[in-house]
Each structure stands twice: as structure tokens, then as C-alpha cells.
Amino acid sequence: MRQASTQSASWQVRAPFVLFLVVALAAPMLLTTGFQLRIVSLICIYAILSMGFNLLYGYAGQIAMGHQGFFAIAAYGYALLQLKAGFSPLAALPVSLLICAFVALMIGIPLLRLRTHYLAMATLCFGLVISGVANRWIDVTGGTGGLLIPAITIGERTMDRTTLYYVIVAATAVVLALQNFIVSSHLGRSLQAIRDDDKAAAALGVNVAVQKLRVFVLSAVIAGLAGIGFAVVSRQVSPSMGEFPILVSMLTIAVVGGLGTRYGPILGSIVVVVAPQFLARFGELETLVYGLCLLLFLIFMPHGLSGMVRSLASRQRTGFARSSPPRLPKRQHVKKGVGR
């Protein structure tokens, strides 16, 4: 019985992952325009960004509001390494992620001593600083005009849009698998213990400061990877990548998809990226309708789409268990003369 329940729980984790891969890999065959392919690419990019935030806030309980800064730092590093230092795209990718990790380590050591809204305000100020530098350091960042990124070339061939899409899907799958592994591992359990009560976690032997710093740096690197993906798809880097709308989109994805869930970032990204395309018909009322929909979502589905899917699945299992006839115990045949 225990083995069957373990296999069922394992399949509940793997089935959505397989479904995501099948749908994502088949998407270019079903889409008809390059704009639609760009929309699906943005869904994957925002899912990567939100998975880093989900690990930090959803599982570790650290309210950090500066991920848009790392989103921009990695993108600018990726562009400047190619334009100023002559790096190839493949070499600029890991170096820009290392720069992002170093910055996260340097600010994480002092800032993670803060808690709750103090940490949120400090990290939000960090994001504002990055946006201000990107706007005003015109000689390096290009100011409000930003920087143009050259197309990715492999040998003498330029990577086309479909190949780039598959690369982004592969990156999303790797980050999703990494998130699921962390959540199921000892690190994930220690992060959840810190989220619930960091003093109790420390009493149980968890090194709270080290674990907070680890997940902070990891989430910053994941946000940086999403920033590079966004820059490559857009073919440019601009200060808007480090501004407040990116943070709002990330928080909205966390609310809509479900905070502290494995597949909430993907579900939330689908809604946040696709919904404005349908709401554009409302014209000037688009923002009002969008905000009203989010308000209704918070009232009627406070646990997000993942919570709704989980509750529907549990109801279905309960209904199936009630409809199936109970198993009668096997009759024991007692030989004559035994027990007399």
C-alpha cells in the first residue's frame, strides 16, 4: 500500500512535467505566425523568472522585491560582454550569470539579516538603483535607448526563431527540473522549515543564514537566465527590464499560479502573458478590467490555479473512492477439528 501511494505521488509530480514538455515541443507545429511563437517564448521566460522568485519567497519565505534588478544585470552583462569585450554568445552566457551570482552574494550577505518588510524594501531599493544606473550611465548602457544584441550564430549559421524557441524551452525544462529536485530534497525541506519558523529550524540544526544565502543567489541566477532569454528574444536590452512593471508581472504570476507550488509559475505565466492579448479590445479600459479580474481571482481562488487544480483532483479521487464498491475481506477457511 505504501509503495503504491509513493508511486502515485511520484507520478503526480512527473505527469505535469511531461505534459509541459509535450505541449511546448509541439507548439511550433501548431502556431501559424512568428508573433504567436514569441508569445509562447515569453511564457517560458516569465516562468523561469517566477521559478526563482518561487524558490526564494514561496518555499523559503524571504520577501525579496529586487529580482527585476538581476533580470537586468544579466541581460546587460550578456550584451556588453559581446559588444565591448568581444565574447561569443556561448561564452557570454555563463560569465554574465557568474556576474549576477557575485552581485547577489555581495548584497545578500548584509541584506538577508533583515526580515519581512525590511527585506522587501531593501531589495526594492536595489532594483531601483539598477534601473537608475541603466538610465543614466549612457556611455555604457546606452541610456533609455538601450543596447542592440547581435543575432546568435553557430559557426556560419544564424540561429532562427524556431531553434531559439527550443533552446528557451530546454532552459525552462532544466530550471523546472532543478526546482522540483530542490523542493523534494533536504534543501527544500530546510527552506520550508525556515519559512515556517526560522528559530525552530535553527534549533533543529539548520544553518539558517547559509541556506538563505544559497537560495537567494540561486534565485538571482535563475532571474538572470530569464533576463538573458528576454534580451535574446527581443534582440535588445533596455532600462525597462529593471523597472517596476517586471516586478508587478512576477508578483502577479505568483498570485495567479499559486505561491509555493511546483507548477504555479508556468500556469501563472500563461495567464499573465496571454491575458493582455485578449484584453486589448477594451482599449483604455484594459488596465481597469485587468485589475478587476485579478481582484476577483484573489477573492475566489486565493491559492491560485495550482490550488484549484489540486482541489479538483482531490475531489475526483474522493468521488472515485466513494463510487467504487468496498472490498470485502477474504473468508478464512478453517479446517475441521482445528480450534476446538
Reconstruct the topology from this structure.
Elements (H helix, E strand, L loop, with lengths): L1 H29 L3 H26 L7 H17 L5 H23 L4 H21 L1 H4 L5 E2 L4 E2 L2 E2 L2 H24 L1 H11 L1 H6 L4 H27 L1 E2 L6 H14 L6 H16 L6 H15 L3 H20 L17
Helix pairs in contact: 1-7, 2-7, 2-10, 2-11, 2-12, 3-4, 3-5, 3-10, 4-10, 7-8, 8-10, 11-12, 11-14
E-strand count: 4
What is the ordering of alpha helices and beta strands? HHHHHHEEEHHHHEHHHH
* Helical run tally: 14
Q: List low-confidence stretches.
A: none
How would you describe the overall organization of this protein?
The structure is a single chain. Helix content is 74%, strand content 2%. It is built from 14 helices and four strands. The longest helix has 29 residues. A two-stranded antiparallel ribbon has the order 1-4. Strands 2-3 form a two-stranded antiparallel sheet. Helix 2 packs antiparallel against helix 10. It has a domain of 234 residues. With 340 residues, the chain is an all-alpha fold.
Question: Key terms for this structure?
Answer:
340 residues, mainly alpha, two-stranded antiparallel ribbon, 4 strands, 2% strand, globular
